[in-house]
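Figure 2 data, in text form.
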Amino acid sequence: MPAEPEHVHLNNHHRDTLEKILQHPASHNIEWLDVLSLLEAVGTVDESHDSKFVVTLGSETETFDRPKHKDVDIQVVVDLRRMLHSAGYATDAN
């Protein structure tokens, strides 16, 4: 079960997405809409006019492009892991 900062309570759907992002080896079946929902729950997400998403989580800000397909690519997973770990999100399943 994820250890999460005290001020954020994730629902089961968000927890499942968090576990997929943090699991090793990386899952190749993580849907962008699930990721977006998680990020909106734990951070700040601003969409620009060119389908880019500026995500602030903890002290980090990263810009992500909307994927062409429904699933995020491996580099997005790596970037998300770094941001989530830095913000205090971890899982015992790692």
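Caption note: Residues 12-86 form a domain with the Metal Transport, Frataxin; Chain A fold (CATH 3.30.920).
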